[in-house]
Amino acid sequence: MEAWHVALLVFLALEGGALFGMGSQRWLKAHHLSKDTQEAVKLGVGMVAAMASLILGLMTASVKGNFDTTGKDVQQYATYLTILDATLQHYGPAAKPAREALRAYTVHAMNETWPQPDGPPVMVASFDSEQLLERAGHEIRILEPTGPEQTDLKAEALDRFKSLNALRWTLIAEAVTEIPPVFIVVLIVWLTLIFASFGLFSPVNLVSLIVFPLCALSLAGAIFLILEMSSPFDGVIMVGPEAIQRALEHMKLP
């Protein structure tokens, strides 16, 4: 499900729980709504609220940490691309095919990872991009140095290519942070129970009818942010392509 679908489900569940609690007041006898009953219910719901807060905090910290790490890795990836291209440029004209292959891969990977709004869906890893990167590696490996300097530059380029390829697979692994659906389901049940208890002992008036939807909207927004950040290359909140674009500017061929 899309993040906004889940957020809408959360909002409807919480608001429904609050309205159910308010509606239940008329069916319950007075002693069921006594002060002692309220205190007992508040004690139990307080424990559930504490657990829900803990789960929300852990989920937010997890996806935010992965999101920030992915952003740093993208910047490092752009740096690797720039340095590898500079190394090949220093090698000389013989490395031009390798530079062309590296630039072709970079353009293709950027268009796949950050497509146009009306373009194809996001694809962090594909067979085509892998083939283009392997072609760049092949062009580097078949270079024939004519002196000690070119020998060192070829060895440096191969080492940087290996680092680049390893970081690519790291980014592929970071593309999605798996949030177990059971976490979301249990969290929705807990929050719905909390809102139902709020509605059960809340007076039915205009203030309650305004505040409960706002609170439900806030929690739905929190779930939305968590799910959005779990996919760093897709959705409203994502890691941008600016670092790769700057790398491409430095990889211009003569």
Descriptive notes:
The chain has 254 residues and is mostly helical. It is 76% helix and 0% strand. The protein has helices at residues 3-24, 35-91, 96-113, 127-141, 148-174, 181-200, 206-229, 242-250. α1 (3-24) runs parallel beside α6 (181-200). It is rod-shaped and about 95 Å long. The two termini are 47 Å apart.
Topology:
Blueprint: H1 3-24, H2 35-91, H3 96-113, H4 127-141, H5 148-174, H6 181-200, H7 206-229, H8 242-250
Helix pairs in contact: 1-6, 1-7, 2-3, 2-5, 2-6, 2-7, 2-8, 3-4, 4-5
List its traits.
single chain; rod-shaped; 8 helices; 254 residues; mainly alpha
What is the terminal-to-terminal distance? 47 Å
Q: Uncertain regions: pLDDT < 50 for 5+ in a row?
A: none
The proportion of residues in beta strands is under 5%
Rg from alpha-carbon coordinates = 27 Å
Secondary-structure element order, as H and E? HHHHHHHH
